[in-house]
TrEMBL record:
Protein keywords: ATP-binding, DNA damage, DNA repair, Nucleotide-binding
Record's protein name: DNA repair protein RecN
Gene3D superfamilies attached to this UniProt entry: P-loop containing nucleotide triphosphate hydrolases (3.40.50.300)
UniProt family annotation: Belongs to the RecN family.
Species of the source: Flavobacterium pokkalii
One Pfam family hit: SMC_N
Stored PANTHER family: DNA REPAIR PROTEIN RECN
Residue stretches making up the RecF/RecN/SMC N-terminal domain: 2-505
Lineage summary: Bacteria, Pseudomonadati, Bacteroidota, Flavobacteriia, Flavobacteriales
Function: May be involved in recombinational repair of damaged DNA.
Amino acid sequence: MITALSIKNYALIERLSIDFSKGFSIITGETGAGKSIILGALGLVLGKRADLTSLKNKEEKCIIEAQFDISKYNLKAFFEANDLDYEEETIIRREILPSGKSRAFVNDSPVNLQELQDLGLFLIDIHSQQQTRELTDENVQFDIIDAIAANQDVILEYQALLKSYKSDKTKLNSLLKKLSESNKEKEYHAFLLNELQTAQLKSGEQEELESVFEKLNNVESIREAIDKSLAIANEEQFGILNNLKETKNAIQKIAAFAPEYQELLERINSLAIEFDDIAAEINRCSERIVFDPEQLEQTNQKLQLIYNLQKKHQVATVEELIEIQSQLESEVLELGNMDEAIALLNQTIAEKVDELDALATTIHNNRIEAVPVLSEKMIAILATLGMPNTRFNIDVQQTESYFANGKDELQFLFSANKGTDFGLLKKVASGGEMSRIMLAVKAILAQYSKLPTLIFDEIDTGVSGEIAIKMGEIMKGMSQTMQIFAITHLPQIAAKGDAHFKVSKSTVDEDTQSELRLLTEEERVVEIAQMLSGTIVSDSALNHAKALLN
């Protein structure tokens, strides 16, 4: 329930702070006094969008703060899910800055408008005569029946299963589409894979083959260069090895005369050893040179195969070809597994369909049992509200389609008078009738579910006298288990309240301001008397007001 409301710099309100109590509260005031401003401020607290026109003083920010007692609302899970601090006395604050930006806080934690709107659904339910048209919405009608049928838990189970079922259907359709597309390319991919597998590619193979090819393809040039090198190294009279030997012998004769000669000898000795090894290696290379036309042809063919595959797949290395081969193998394997996955999904979906059908049947049967209960209660309440000939024909039919709340379609048919045919509620019920039907619905729902604070905004328009008294009694009865507000012009309803607030408008120094204040018992008598007789209050009006209050 809302326990306090504070408004600063909003519309015609400069500053307002008011406390509320549980039970049945009345709000009255002249047309244009500012009742809609109070509702507008509450709307901002509940997450409605705001703009700069909300500011009374465009240079200052607007602050609206509402305090709620939520100790009996079971909202801890909501607060945890939205990472908010849970307080039994929760404060919601909305700020509108002169720049036009808006901020919202729940227990001083910043929240976005969607979170505020979600929380607001649990806190306040505002109904005006215009909003009674919601009753013509099929989803709202189902909500009413399901509350009486106690379908909430089974519908939650159904919705969770339906979400899983739809997810599986999406996966299945995706697999089937992929399979269809893959089958078109299956043969070509298999051909490509076979081509790569036949090539038996290895990492680094291309460089090795290219090296072998160069050797085999240039064997004559290599042989000529090696033979020439061996001749230069080993020629008996002028060869490098012989010259190095003679140089070594010459320096060796003087090595003992000075350290630098000894160092030269060591270097020549090292050079001789190294070149001797080089000459031996050249000789081994010479021995290994064999012209093998068959190997050359095989090497050339393998290289041409690699080059052709690289060109086909638009890559430059064997490693990239091996990666493509791996991808093709995965795709072929996936195609093989896809049929199995599709079969498994079909089985899972069939099982979920059976479960959904069972839950939908439970929901349907519960609704069928709830319909006569709802009709009887509605007819009984509406009879007291001046609609004694009301009849309802609520038809619930199960279909083959899966909707968000079951498989049912609903027709909510209504007749207000004897001898008239049933018609759809939205087509045949007048505004006044819809207001009374809405009140009856809320009164019934209060018996079956935990409703938030209810604000009835002039839903009594078009009724008077004894009917107004009955409407007031119904609201009073509802207030025994919940907080009820009624914005009304009818003294019969105003007299039923536990607390009476008046909205008034005044002009101070050419500045118009609205205020809301709690009336004393004496002020309340005068207010109801004025509602009965107008601005000039007669003794009979005062007596009538006292009689209504008593």
